[in-house]
Specification:
It contains seven helices and six strands. It has 216 residues and is an alpha+beta fold. InterPro entries: BTB/POZ_dom (IPR000210), SKP1/BTB/POZ_sf (IPR011333), T1-type_BTB (IPR003131).
Amino acid sequence: GVRMRMEGREEMQGAVGLRCTWDIPPPAGTQAKWVRLNVGGTVFLTTRQTLCREQKSFLCRLCQGEELQSDRDETGAYLIDRDPTYFGPILNFLRHGKLVLDKDMAEEGILEEAEFYNIGPLIRIIKDRMEEKDYTVTQVPPKHVYRVLQCQEEELTQMVSTMSDGWRFEQLVNIGSSYNYGNEDQTEFLCVVSKELYNSPNGLSSEPTHKAKVRL
């Protein structure tokens, strides 16, 4: 009968143990909850859970300590020879999933570090942001180019109707008659047309390919 009771008690303990695994503190040292990182001389304190948010990252592999035998400083912090400036935003991204940058901080710098630490979601976010920024930079206001064309009254209609794409009729100036054809005076006009030039991303103006087709 004694043996039965013992087995019963062991089963009970097993069940309780299973239910409470998260209560049992991890063994000190290797799997401690807090992790110190010495990034280029600046010490960051974070948790193993934060570093392992992104399973494939260098930081997750580092604090699991299986594959990467990293050097440690005298306080036991993992030594990482990277720029600490950009490590703060990377650590914060792992903490709360948002990319928060000071306005002076270069996104290229963060991207470089995100790629080094292999944090996929962060790399995608930064690339998206950089593309958006590029897009807004290229949306520069158009420049206006004006051309003045001289023509006679009878040519006006034809000229306006044959104006090519993008050219807009702005103004007509009557400069009076300068020629006598027999008895008939031909009135001369100055016709002002304009076109918008958009700056292309490389900073060169894209000159309109169609010039206004005008018989002068």
